């Protein structure tokens, strides 16, 4: 017996025993430090040598280990170590138990589970599902990717991985030219001219659109300087359009205006012109003989040197032929500008203003009220833009729209004015007496409500018919207020034949049944409902009413839209549908991106999808 104890003691004192004991000590201490609120599940660790241990046994027998804490099941393999792999194993092991407990809690809280089952429950559920699919045709849409994967003839040959499908999509876009790899002949010519622009003395009689493309490329390449300006602004041009005038000096612009205005310059479109367009340029324009001045359009952006009296002087010099005014981010414009508009474009003087665009201009409320109330200068307006102006409220919009008494308005842009409410909607409806309104942009108006918008697009006795819009923008409004009902009413108003409006069955929930009342030449063209609460129901209505007209759709951050709605819309609209923006729609998967009906033929640009080619940089499409 003594020999056996001596042999066990020698085994425990060996290197292997010491290593095992050190490991146990480390695990015990780590568990204690990681979970100090839980008692240790392991027993008291004995001495390294049983021969030297003073506590080897108890009066009741050998001490094998400590007691488990109350409420914990006995598990000799349980460890409280908090390392990443141990925690992962514990979570995986507890997953089924947590799932079972969660299902039990849901079953207790769900009142439908308390109902007794019936033999016809499955038949009833099938009938309800059939009804839902009839009312929502997008539920029947199946992705081409799913059809290929589920095809019994192909087996597993067509089942590709996620990365393989992304690579296939990238290669397909590259072949079709959507990836920017195939440059058009026009762009090749523009690039060649820009690369050798310092050798060009004159562009000849080319259109202003070509000059604009050259200017954009010069700005992108950092080559837009004084010499390039002299070539673009040569004698004989009718439109002086520059996307960036930061490198153009006052003297250069004034010298060009002295030459171009008497020779037939008709439009001045300058962006970022704060350095060059100011008092001196206005003085040059006012010195031109009246019978030689043929300006009909002036567009100035960022002219921070242009004073209020200078703008009034410019209008007084060019009002005879001027019909379009656009001013953006000119901080010195004020009351004198509005007074000049009211005087020179009134009926007494005879000026005719057709387009007025003001954005980010610090005008006062009294100045705008005087423009609409004390003059009929805006009586012939076709396009009105009052964007991002702090003073614009319901009263200003009401007075200005009431002064346009000819029903000629074709476009209204009131975006970015937080003070506007539902009160502006009846005013817009009343000024559309002739039904000419085609564009309505109300982006960022947080105080618009669903009731006001529904009334705006609903036929009401005593008011003109709802506008037949081509472009609508209700993005960044209140998410809960801009919903399916708004878009459905707007789409119906834009595309139904007026003679058949009363005969439409409003109770039929299936949008495909409305096809008989659709006008072949009407329908929404540009739709922006970003940040709204629309669902697939709205996309079904767009597919039914705008299949031959829809060109661009922006539903960014509309989180209730699914693959089925987008896929159904893409399968129904024609090839004129060129662009869809889906920023912030994480729920859109490869079922739509790789399975819609335009994947192979191309021509549809999907903006807002992240793709990464293996081994290359990330691409945002």
Automatic annotation (TrEMBL):
<feature type="compositionally biased region" description="Basic and acidic residues">
    <location>
        <begin position="18"/>
        <end position="35"/>
    </location>
</feature>
<dbReference type="InterPro" id="IPR032675">
    <property type="entry name" value="LRR_dom_sf"/>
</dbReference>
<feature type="region of interest" description="Disordered">
    <location>
        <begin position="99"/>
        <end position="122"/>
    </location>
</feature>
<feature type="region of interest" description="Disordered">
    <location>
        <begin position="1"/>
        <end position="83"/>
    </location>
</feature>
<protein>
    <submittedName>
        <fullName>Uncharacterized protein</fullName>
    </submittedName>
</protein>
<feature type="compositionally biased region" description="Polar residues">
    <location>
        <begin position="51"/>
        <end position="60"/>
    </location>
</feature>
<feature type="compositionally biased region" description="Basic and acidic residues">
    <location>
        <begin position="113"/>
        <end position="122"/>
    </location>
</feature>
């Amino acid at each position: 017996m003594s020999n056996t104890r001596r042999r066990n003691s020698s085994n425990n004192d060996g290197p292997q025993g010491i290593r095992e004991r050190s490991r146990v000590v480390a695990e015990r201490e780590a568990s204690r430090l990681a979970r100090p609120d839980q008692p240790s599940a392991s027993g008291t660790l004995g001495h390294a040598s049983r021969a030297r241990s003073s506590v080897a046994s108890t009066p009741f027998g050998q001490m094998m280990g400590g007691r488990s804490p109350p409420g914990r099941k006995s598990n000799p393999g349980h460890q409280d170590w908090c390392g990443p792999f141990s925690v992962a194993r514990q979570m995986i092991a507890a997953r089924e138990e947590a799932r079972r407990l969660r299902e039990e809690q849901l079953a207790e809280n769900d009142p439908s589970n308390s109902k007794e089952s019936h033999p016809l429950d499955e038949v009833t559920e099938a009938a309800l599902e059939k009804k839902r699919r009839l009312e929502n045709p997008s539920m029947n849409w199946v992705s081409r990717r799913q059809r290929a994967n589920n095809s019994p003839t192909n087996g597993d040959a067509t089942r590709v991985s996620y990365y393989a499908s992304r690579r296939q999509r990238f290669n397909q876009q590259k072949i079709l030219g959507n990836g920017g790899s195939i440059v058009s002949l026009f762009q090749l010519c523009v690039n060649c001219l820009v690369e050798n622009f310092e050798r060009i003395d004159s562009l000849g009689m080319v259109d202003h659109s070509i000059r604009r493309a050259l200017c954009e490329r010069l700005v992108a390449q950092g080559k837009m300087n004084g010499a390039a300006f002299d070539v673009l602004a040569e004698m004989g041009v009718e439109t002086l359009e520059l996307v960036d005038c930061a490198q153009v000096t006052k003297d250069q612009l004034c010298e060009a205006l002295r030459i171009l205005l008497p020779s037939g310059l008709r439009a001045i479109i300058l962006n970022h012109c704060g350095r060059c367009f100011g008092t001196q340029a206005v003085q040059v324009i006012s010195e031109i003989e009246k019978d030689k001045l043929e300006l009909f359009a002036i567009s100035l952006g960022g002219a921070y040197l242009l004073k209020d009296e200078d703008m009034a002087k410019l209008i007084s010099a060019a009002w005879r032929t001027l019909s379009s005014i656009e001013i953006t981010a000119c901080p010195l414009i004020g009351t004198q500008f509005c007074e000049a508009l009211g005087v020179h474009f009134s009926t007494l003087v005879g000026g005719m203003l057709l387009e007025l665009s003001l954005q980010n201009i610090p005008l006062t409320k009294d100045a705008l009220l005087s423009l609409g109330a004390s003059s009929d200068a805006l009586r012939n307006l076709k396009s009105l833009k009052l964007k991002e102006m702090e003073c614009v409220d319901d009263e200003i919009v009401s007075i200005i729209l009431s002064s346009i008494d000819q029903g000629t308005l074709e476009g209204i842009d009131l975006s970015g004015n937080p003070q506007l409410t539902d009160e502006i909607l009846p005013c817009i409806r009343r000024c559309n007496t002739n039904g000419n309104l085609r564009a309505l942009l109300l982006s960022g108006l947080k105080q618009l409500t669903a009731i006001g918008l529904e009334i705006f697009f609903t036929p009401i006795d005593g008011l003109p018919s709802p506008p037949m819009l081509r472009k609508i923008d209700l993005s960044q409004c209140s998410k809960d207020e801009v919903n399916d009902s708004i878009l459905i009413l707007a789409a119906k108003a834009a595309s139904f034949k007026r003679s058949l409006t009363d005969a439409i069955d409003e109770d039929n929930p299936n949008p495909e049944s409305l096809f008989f009342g659709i006008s072949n030449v009407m329908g929404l063209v540009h739709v922006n409902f970003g940040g709204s609460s629309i669902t697939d129901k709205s996309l079904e209505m767009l597919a039914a009413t705008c299949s031959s007209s829809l060109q661009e759709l922006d539903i960014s951050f509309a989180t209730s839209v699914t693959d089925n709605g987008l896929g159904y819309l893409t399968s129904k609209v024609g090839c004129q549908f060129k662009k869809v923006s889906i920023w912030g729609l994480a729920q859109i998967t490869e079922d739509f991106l790789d399975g819609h009906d335009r994947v192979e033929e191309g021509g549809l640009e999907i903006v807002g999808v992240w793709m990464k080619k293996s081994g290359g940089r990330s691409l945002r499409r």
